[in-house]
Each structure stands twice: as structure tokens, then as C-alpha cells.
Amino acid sequence: MSAVVAGDTISEAWLSSLGLFRDVALINRFESDRGPCVERENVVISISRPSQEPKIADEYPHVFWPLVEGVVSAFKGEASSRPSTLQERLYSWPRRKGSGRGRAASSLNQFNLARKMIRESPDSRFTVVGFWDPDIDPFLPNPVSPLNAAFRVRNDVLNASLSVRSVDAWMGGFPMLVGFAGLHEKLAQAGGYKTGGCTYFVLSYHIYEIDLPIVTELIS
Predict the structure, then answer these.
(1) Angle at alpha carbon of residue 201, lines to 189 and 175, rounded to 5°
(2) Which of 72, 33, 9, 55 is closest to 204 using CA atoms?
(3) What is the DSSP letter of 136?
């Protein structure tokens, strides 16, 4: 069953999203490839001020902070000796033969394309960035989590949306929220707009049962 969570900041929204696992009647339980899980389907997380500090909640374990830094770096395309799939598809997606309106470039920088589109057609609904590759991802053991992102300029602010295939609400949810917020802010600055609200749509928002006692104690 779907659920909607809203918050002013990333920290507030994330903590509220953990509360979705209180109602056992709405939780799916299943054996995933990484162990038993509890899951909420079709979760919407709406954040009105994603660029507001502090982004990381005190309740998020410090041992996971490097995960946040890694996802932020991938979304922002920062230098890395070993770029992630997410970073490669955002900043250097390989072109297939005959694609790109005759352009000679061997790869597509989707960030540059999105920046160009919001500058030239800020009201457009075509500013969509893709991450999922149907030729590859269905056959991988751990495919990329984001599916697509969309950006719209409304009332001189840049609003953003991210659709996510699956994310661990306890360990991976925060990196995803903060990482995409970094991309959102970077694109807003590049286009000369203020950073507006951000909405995340998660198909499978789950927690591994081994982590459930920690989350239960936190939300209680």
C-alpha cells in the first residue's frame, strides 16, 4: 500500500519515513537475496527545503557517513578513481549507434543536457534524466537503484523528483536523499535558480529484519 511522508528538511523527512514501519498490517515480509525484509511499497517522500542544513540527522549512525559522501560524490560527478554506475550514467552514458541526432560524441553527459534544457526551456516537462538501462540492469545481481529524475522550473525555483527502484530505509535511504539533493542544488546553481522542493518516489522502501530492532527503538 502506498504512503506519503512530508518534511521540511531531509533529516525530518527521513525520520518520519521510518515511522512507516510501525503499522505491521501494512508491511510486506519476504525473503530477499540479502536476507529477510520488511517492506513498504510505493512510498512518496516530499521535502520542502532539501538544501537546508544540517542534512544528516544525529540519529543516523556515524559509521554510515562514508556511504553518504560516496553517493553525494556520484550524483555530483566529483572525481573518483572508480566511478560508480550511477555517476557514469549521469555524466558519461555510452551512446548507442545512431543515437543523439547525429552527434559524434561517444557518451552523453545528462547533467549538461539538463542544464541546457532548464536554461533554454525552464518550463519544459522534458527535462528528464535516466539511470536504468533495460539492456543490462535486469540481469545484474545489484543493479542501479535510481530509475529516473525530472526537473522543472516553477516560480523561478527548480523543483526536482527522483524515482527509485529499491532502497534500504535504514542504511541506504539517507545517502539517496542527500545525494540527489546535492545534484538538485548543483543543477539549480548552474541554471541560476533557487533550489525548490524535492519529491522521492520509492517502489520498495524496506528494512532488513536484522536492523528492525534498532529502527523500532528509534521511532518509539
Answers:
(1) 60
(2) 33
(3) T
Domain ranges of the chain: 3-219
β-pairing verdict for 194-208 and 35-47: antiparallel
Q: What does the alpha-carbon distance between residue 160 and residue 209 come to, in Å, rounded to a whole number?
A: 32
Say which residue the cell 540492469 belongs to.
137
CA 99 – CA 205 distance, rounded (Å) = 34
Report pTM. 0.92
Instruction: List per-residue pLDDT tens for the chain, 220 residues long.
Output: 689 999 999 999 999 999 999 988 889 998 988 899 999 999 999 999 999 988 888 889 999 999 999 999 999 999 666 779 999 999 999 987 766 555 556 899 999 999 999 999 999 999 999 999 999 999 999 899 999 999 999 999 999 999 999 999 999 999 999 999 999 999 999 999 999 999 999 999 999 999 999 999 998 8
Looking at domain 3-219, its CATH superfamily turns out to be Thymidylate synthase/dCMP hydroxymethylase domain (3.30.572.10)
Instruction: Please choose, from the candidates 51, 30, 2, 25, the residue with its C-alpha nearest in 3D space to the C-alpha of residue 181.
Output: 51
